[in-house]
Amino acid sequence: SSIQNQLTILAMCDAGNGQNISGASNFSFSSAFLMAGAQSCLFNIWKQDDKTASVLLGYFLENITHGQAKDDALRNAKINYLKN
Questions:
Q1: Beta strands 26-28; 18-20: pairing state
Q2: pLDDT in tens, 1-53
Q3: d(CA 46, CA 40)
Q4: What is the pTM of this model?
Q5: Nearest in space to 45 (alpha carbons), one of 18, 21, 15, 77
């Protein structure tokens, strides 16, 4: 069966980094979710400590709850993190 959700959140370091596969593009853990039908996927492409990730994700989810689009919610979460 396929994943049928609007957003998959991968709360782990380097989930967006993967391997180059001959004849294809970069394949990563996040790619598997998108190929399985997830509409969108939020993930890191760098190493990040758990505290920072938790704070950013909290801001992001709060923004989503208040009706912000995913891209705006992420941008505003980063801005809020830097301000605080």
A1: antiparallel
A2: 587 788 888 876 555 555 555 555 656 777 788 888 888 888 776 677 778 88
A3: 19
A4: 0.73
A5: 15
